[in-house]
Amino acid sequence: MSARNRELTALVPVALLLTAGFAAVFAQENSNLDDASLLFGAYFLAVCLATHVYLRIRLPDADPYLFPLVALLTAFGLVMIYRIDSGLARDQANWFVLGLVLFALTIHFLRDYEVLERYRYTIAAVGILLLLAPRLPGIGEQVNGAYLGVKIGPLAFQPAEFSKICLVVFLASYLREHREVLIVGARRVLGVTLPPLKHFGPLLVVWGASMFMLVFIRDLGSSLMFFAAFLALLYVATGRFSFVVIGMAMFLLGAWFFASTVPHVHDRVEIWLDPYAHPQGSGYQILQSIFAQADGGLFGKGFAQALIVVPGTHATLLPAAQTDTIYSLIVNELGLFGACGVVLIYLLIAARGFKIALLSADGFSKLLATGLTAVFAIQAFVIIGGVTRVIPLTGVTLPFISYGGSSIVANFVLLALLLLISDRARREARELGR
Amino acid sequence: MNRQIVRLFGLVVVLFAVLVGFTSYWAVFDAKALKEEDANKRPLLEQQQIQRGRILAADGTVIARSVPKGQGANLRYVRRYPEGSLYGHPIGYSFVREGDSEFEQFHNDELVGNESEFSSILDELRGRNQEGDDVATNLDPAAQAVALEDLREAGFGAVVAIEPKSGRVLTMASNPPYDPNRIPYDLTELNENVVEAPLYNRATQGQYPPGSTFKVVTAAAGLESGTITPETAFPAPSPLIVETVPLQNDFNTSYGPISLDTALTNSVNTWFGQLGQDLGQDQLFETMEKFGFNSTPPIDLPKNDISGSGVYSEGHVLHRDDPVDVARVAIGQERLAVTPLQMAMVAAAVANGGKLMKPQIWSRVIDPDGRVVKRLDPSEYSQPISAETAAELTTAMEGVVSEGTGTNAAISGVPVAGKTGTAETPYNESCGGGTDENQAWFIGFAPADEPQVAIAATVECTTQFGNDVAAPIFRDVAESILNGG
Lengths: 434, 485
What we know:
Chain A is mainly alpha-helical and about 425 residues long.
């Protein structure tokens, strides 16, 4: 079976899940199966099929499983968001369509994605500027002590979501060119292998700048995500585990420093270590997140059965259910089994992403695919780990599931890049095989 | 670079496994503890939205029910107790803010309809909302009312009535009572009232000296072990020096050689003291334990609301090896502390040919469609004595009522077997510290030849004797049950 036919086949279970999910929410809320709601599901499928056809024409050799897996997550997210608030779900559906438009545009204009290499410093600068934007007067927005959003007229978005792609592109490109000298030029100082400063400098500058910005705009989750992606790429490019160790040490030092000097970071760590200290205050979100999971058990309470607000009031029981804690809501309603399914989908996407990197012939493609996959997987880890108290809770979105336009659009651009790399790698492999 | 990519993927697998591990911990392994956290209001909020099942008396009288308040998303259920204080004990209460107690707490799972996880999935597939089951009790409304009314006149105390052949608890009353409907308003006040302690179920938590009613246990041990037969006779002088302290009979009467019937009829202390010494601590404790002493009674109430019975020292039950004055244990003195429930179990075992059935308040669980989903299957707790010993004891206990110390328990036309008890409780702070206060008891069953009910009645801090104040309660409650049945 050709790659595209496999993709089409794989979209069938997505259709079934979406239909079943909406049906379950309808049944629970005793609302009539009104036309608008059913059309909603039909549109989703139509859009998926259109995308499939587009891929069939433009990227016939691209990985057949990535798009169905992503569609699955999106469908799942739409059902969960619909269950929280049908208005939010309509927004999310619009973002989904916009995401696919950008997805198609990326594929259209970046067929030769090596051009990205030429503009790597520009891209790095754009990434840093994007991060800086929320602190700019007039367009910046502060939410919960963090400067995450930008609002220009009617358009509001979270630049960190796009910035992560810029950073990965820059790192992949820079490391492709300098990996040899980073390896060869490494010197042993006091038994530790250190990278040559001359070639490592620019990396440190970019990394340091982004770290500074992240602390400056207080987006801890993205900071963690960026840093992990940086280390992952550095390790893959150089094969030097010692670089990772040095990086970790630097991170721990930085973390300790920020935790003891920046109150915002300090609070997050304190809440993580002892959420019961202020169960009604700062610890409320993480505690409610865990209580929601405890309420779910093995099989969950079923779609639309969990409590999000205190009945009869507007008091929130599970704060930020549509964004930060959507995973907790999934555990609550679909149980441990449902949550394992979600984690498994992320793992499968990561597996396909790394597979693309393995298949790619040239260094840039390899590093770019690795970086994009790593940053995606780490994002999922940071937020799921946050709501399950593996690490301090920081507000990043759960890719393709959480409510949020920037997240869904940026991740579709990320997916487009992965598919572009995949299409070339698989075509070359196929031609070589013949 | 491929090797590093594979390793990186390995790391991602490990990280995701950690996520699954933590999720499993919160959702499954630690879930029970998390649900009990004070900060976690979910279980309460969810229960509040479930229509809790009703609690019914034996004749179908509604003891507790939930009424809806508000509509739509505001819908909540609030507990109501139409009979007020009549069933405050042993039913208890259940409110979101104040928590729950006694029968309401013990049978919570049935009342809120908590079935196994699997059947709740089936319900979900069928689109059913969780609804509580009704729980019917064995409580007899007429007898319950008589018991509480009599206690109100006699003083603080408790009455427990059990159907001997099944262990069904027909009556359980504790005075002073409380009205569970008042719990949301008066809980703090009720808790702070340590003198009257209305929230304290004296029937299952009151630890009282049993006095002479315990002689039934001593006699059972004597007959069962073969230490005596109904014909064994020996003198019972008064006073008799036991453990260097003189032991006296009522009015300091000395008796020549007498057998069990005479000794029990006249409640002769020195006779039973000697029997206790002949039996020895091992033998006496063995029989006690078979009757249920030294362990938590097997009744359907939460452990916090029931106490064990036995010889207590500083809050701990003494066992066979601990030093006790066995002669004084044998006549219900020493440091014996027993619950009315335990003494009712003693009477019920004798009445049931020596077989002690597990006392149970519930009788049926009925689902919202009216189907009986569970029914009480009476089960044996132990057989402390043989049928022969039980028959011999019954004869002796009939003498107590017909011609001995317990004549006020007699019911016309019905043979009654029983035993009085009057334990002196001077300088007891809870009685005001006077010198004349007694713990008055009566335990027994009727009809003696075909027992339908076994009862323990006790009144605390009274200046009267068991026959004066406890035996009439026995009679009234027994009559009510026999007439009703």
